[in-house]
# Entry
Amino acid sequence: MENPVSTNRAPTAARRRRFDPERRARIIRAAVDVVGEIGVEKLTLRAVAAVADVPLGSMTYHFSNVDDLLVSALEMAAEESTAYWCRWGEELPAGADLAEELAILLERLTTGPARRQTAVELDLYLASMRRPHLRSASLSLARIAYVTLEQHTDLDTARALSFMSDGLVLEALASDRPLKRDECVAMLRRVFPH
# Structure
């Protein structure tokens, strides 16, 4: 009698599937990159699959739709931004001129390599206006700055500085006009006089 479980069978799809524990994270990173290239509105699972170098079927295995992927991309952006702001806050020397230090940070966020990441974060954040399922993740992204700033001032001042910083960054990114540090410091001092 023949053994019903033959070891000579052709590999099934499950056996052929490559073990790739980093695939989900790679897809999310690719989504962030695609948003940086073409924006939230043009993001498709197919475009992300191409950048992540995964089969389209992997996209639907990990994410039910584009909106599900956007939530994960926003969460990744929030995690990275949180780490960045926390590091900045921890490195501030005691008694630092907060308006000056914040102006330096905003200049850094809107120029050079950080500019693209900042634009992606804003694009994802603004998408929550029309996509309510993104709001929870976008609010956590919005809180990062003032939670960090609150360690150096009171909550109301921290929130005012954060909102002003958001406006300055948005202006710099949308107008393509670089932030001028002295102008930025002067505006921030109205909220936080040294």
Observations:
- The CA atoms of residues 106 and 165 lie 7 Å apart.
- Residues 66-91 form the longest helix (26 residues).
- Residues 1-16 have pLDDT under 50 and may be disordered.
